[in-house]
Amino acid sequence: MRSRTKPNQSRGHVGAGGFTLIETSMATVIIGVGVLAMVDAQSAFIVSNQWSSHAASATFLANEIRELTRNLPNHDPVNGLTLIDDGNGNMIIAGWGVDAGEVVVSDFDDIDDFDGITFSFVGTPGLNDNDLPGPINSYGEVIPALAEDGSEMGSTDSNLLFTGDAMFGWYQTVMVEKINPFDSSVAHPNAYFEVPNGSFPGREVDEYPLRVSVLVFYQGANDINPELVTTVTWIVP
After folding, report:
1. Per mean pLDDT, which range of 59-68, 71-80, 174-183 is the poorest?
2. CA–CA separation, 120 vs 205, rounded Å?
């Protein structure tokens, strides 16, 4: 006897509506790629923004040193620079760098006093290791760290010695070089001078322009070594 199909039944199988496993996988991949791209872009933005902030801070710190030294003479206003015999027939410079009795930045009275000095948050009083507390501003004062409420976390006592936490992570290193008067890219040794020659009257050891460079470094809490952020250089006639 021939069977008959009921009117409400289809002859073939029709699957239930929805996504297949392949479609779901593809959608997951597409969404995942988009999310990863957004996260990567956000991370790059944060790094770029942080570096821009560091660059601005570093430029500010370098220019503070420039302002501090703007009105200072090139060399000691009393003793100047002199050449002396070291006992072996070699002439060495006297008067370059920190002079006797200069122990804090407020004692520095000429530009060459700053040569080789670093002002940093790990600096210590005394110049035996060529560093001092810092970084410093254009008044020679240590720039203090700021608390979360914006208050300063340090102060300067009556002896101009800083107590407290300095601006964390920053170093200002100052380099002073004697340069050729006609080519600022050529540096000379500190004891260099020129003897008279024909119509040239010669040039004394203290008659050269100076090139001053401030190298600003930053060392984060998890950084092993400080990283150079910027260098600001200028010529003092």
Report:
1. 71-80
2. 31
